[in-house]
Amino acid sequence: MTSGATANGPGLGDCGVRISRVSKTYRTRSGTVEAIRNIDLDVNEGEFVALVGPSGCGKSTLLHIVAGLVDMSTGDVDVYGAPARAGRHDVGIMLQRAVLLPWRSVLANVLMPAQIQNSDAAKSRERAYELLEMMGIAAFADKHVWELSGGMRQRASLAQALVTDPAILLMDEPFSAVDEFTRERLNVEVARMHAARGRTTLFVTHNIQEAVFLADRVVVMRPRPGEIEEIVPIDLPRPRTAETLELEQTARLVTEIRRLIGKYV
Ligand SMILES: Nc1ncnc2c1ncn2[C@@H]1O[C@H](COP(=O)(O)OP(=O)(O)OP(=O)(O)O)[C@@H](O)[C@H]1O
Ligand SMILES: [Mg+2]
Question: I want to staple 110 with a disulfide (CB 3.0 to 4.6 A). Which of 63, 75, 128, 256 is the partner?
């Protein structure tokens, strides 16, 4: 385990991501915006944590801080025992707005992180095709990004985050632009992949059923300045399959979380 070997002191244990007292205030020309306040959250190694809450409560901000893309105002974030920073090879990020290069084909975009890391080209291509197949967009591998729909771009962007099989996955609403049936199918794929590889995952979504279906714990945030309202453990049996969606227990958890968010919206 990587985290155990660091000098972060006792207690880090099997923690993949440790978020301690993190706050963020954006300073803009028109004033300041306090996005998140005093967030404490550990994501254990191999754990799947979903983040839900009203629009604007700071979910993306928190994800960006963990990714090292945004500086926090106060607090600390440790990712596998080292302070959060951008450009880590062990972190796969899928941002809310897909960032793909228009002059590259879909396949070339997906392969980019593997190229940056100098990974074995043939193996990476194989994995990229596998992922595009899984996402249902293999037929578009040689197209340009502008030839894809919004939902297809999201899926290409997710394939890009997964291509190097990073130890930590940060995903921001990966399926917000796909239809409900495709989302359900992709959720099953994500659950299957998580069961197989057990990557430490922080997953932002507005879809409560998706959060419940995938996560070990669902973190419910309050409106801005976002604080944690409650952390709901999801004790649904694993593996999670299409049948999981039919369970009464699933419906109960969805209702509980909907109520928690509904207090504010
Ligand atoms: N770069 C920025 N500069 C200034 N304010 C920002 C910036 N990014 C986000 N904000 C503000 O911080 C708050 C939280 O934004 P954030 O994008 O983190 O919310 P969110 O929970 O991801 O929302 P959504 O569910 O709509 O994606 C919002 O009020 C937003 O306007
Ligand atoms: Mg967001």
Answer: 128
User: How far apart are the C-alpha atoms of 126 and 57, rounded to whole Å?
Assistant: 39
Ligand 2 center to 212 CA (angstroms): 18
Nearest protein Cα to ligand 1, atom 2: 26
The answer to whether the beta carbons of residues 177 and 184 sit under 8 Å apart is no
Residue 58: both structure tokens together:
């700071």
Identify whether the C-beta of residue 124 lies closer than 8 Å to the C-beta of residue 117.
no
52-100 pLDDT, tens digit each: 999 999 999 999 999 999 999 999 999 999 999 998 999 999 998 888 9
Residue 72 shares a structural domain with residue 54: yes
Using a cut of 0.90, tell me whether the model's pTM lies above it: yes
What is the rounded CA–CA span in Å between residue 30 and residue 170? 30
103-129 burial, b at 16+ Cβ within 10 Å, e below that, comes to: eebbbbbbbbbbeeeebeeeebbebbe
Domain that holds residue 150: 96-166
Domain count, the chain: 2
CATH classification of the domain holding 78: 3.40.50.300
Instruction: Pick the last residue of a domain from 140, 166, 192.
Output: 166
Which residue spans within 45-173 are E strands per DSSP? Answer: 48-52, 74-79, 82-83, 91-94, 168-172
Q: Is 162 in the pocket of ligand 1 (CB under 6 A)?
A: no
Q: Which of 229, 220, 261, 228 is nearest to 52 (CA)?
A: 220
